[in-house]
Design brief:
- By secondary structure, the protein is α/β, with parallel strands linked by helices.
- It has a single domain, classed as TIM Barrel, CATH 3.20.20.
- Helices cover 38% and strands 19% of the residues.
- It has twelve helices and twelve strands.
- Helix 7 links the parallel strand 8 and strand 9.
- The longest helix has 18 residues.
């Protein structure tokens, strides 16, 4: 296998041997409120995350008229269109998000579900783009992302290996990070398939990470131990808040624990070289009988 690649996102290097890049996914958990979005950015910043991620859609492009007209009760109205439009931020909100993240010193980027959304986010000079699992089979969208020369993070949920291989063929491997993922919210333990991360590492030479939607944190810690170069979890102010993604998200204390234990794990993994530590030498003198 060729030498494993690294990717630079912002001022961080993503790849084996470098600190795990921790992404706090705000997604749509802001519930259409800029105030909530800023509070979630505060959570990510306070806890030491490297980046926050949002989602951007051109509603009339991504959804059909029939889907938008489908009845669905929400705080925004009685149709699915009311909900989707209510959750979508525009230029004013993203300008404030961009400014706020710069003040806080944290990277931000978005999953763009259509070409117009990429054009929209591009004006903010994002550090990278995220391609959602749902968009992995959209060749035109994959190619359009590449027009802007930015690093790409690709989630691989809802996909078998041939679909993933095709997406990588379309995207190329330069400045590409891939994330093992199962796209159910929340995801059951027996469908996380964490060893899939190792399968991706064996098959591809790009940095491999993990996007999790499970309840709890220990499985995410496990992916860091398996060599995930990037981990992403949805965050929330309160898992009981209204919204489809809240139950699969992590609250402030959990986000803090996630970052702390990932960093502790990096220290504990060490460099793999077998050695005698200076702290062991007094124990050698005390407990080991050296035969001559």
């Amino acid at each position: 296998m060729s030498e494993r690649k690294t990717v630079k996102i912002g001022d961080k290097i993503i790849g084996d041997g470098y600190p795990c890049y921790v992404v706090a996914e705000v997604g749509i958990n802001h519930n259409g409120s800029l105030e909530i979005a800023k509070k979630l950015i505060d959570v990510a910043t306070t806890c030491g995350c490297d980046a926050v991620k949002f989602q951007k859609r051109t509603i009339e492009v991504v959804y059909s008229p029939e889907e938008l007209a489908r009845p669905r009760e929400s705080p925004f109205g009685t149709t699915n269109g009311d909900l989707k439009r209510g959750l979508e931020f525009g230029y004013e909100q993203y300008s404030e998000i961009d400014k706020y993240c710069k003040e806080k010193g944290i990277d931000w980027f978005a999953s763009c579900w259509d070409k117009g959304s990429i054009d929209f986010i591009e004006q903010f000079n994002p550090v990278c783009y995220k391609i959602a699992s749902a968009c992995l089979t959209d060749d035109d969208l994959l190619k359009y992302h590449r027009k802007f020369g930015r690093p790409i993070i690709l989630s691989t949920g809802m996909s078998e290996m041939p679909l993933i291989e095709h997406a990588v063929e379309v995207l190329g491997t330069d400045d590409l990070v891939m994330l093992h993922c199962t796209s159910t919210y929340p995801c059951k333990l027996d469908e996380l398939n964490l060893k899939g991360l190792l399968t991706l590492k064996e098959r591809f030479t790009v940095p491999i990470g993990y996007s999790g939607h499970e309840v709890g944190l220990w499985t995410t810690f496990a992916t860091a131990a398996l060599g995930a170069c990037l981990v992403e979890r949805h965050i929330t102010l309160d898992r009981a808040m209204w919204g489809s993604d809240q139950a699969a998200s992590v609250e402030l204390q959990g986000v803090a624990k996630l970052v702390l234990e990932v960093r502790n794990l990096e220290i504990a993994l060490g460099d793999g070289k077998i050695r005698i530590y200076e702290s062991e030498r007094p124990i050698i003198q005390k407990l080991r009988q050296i035969k001559r």
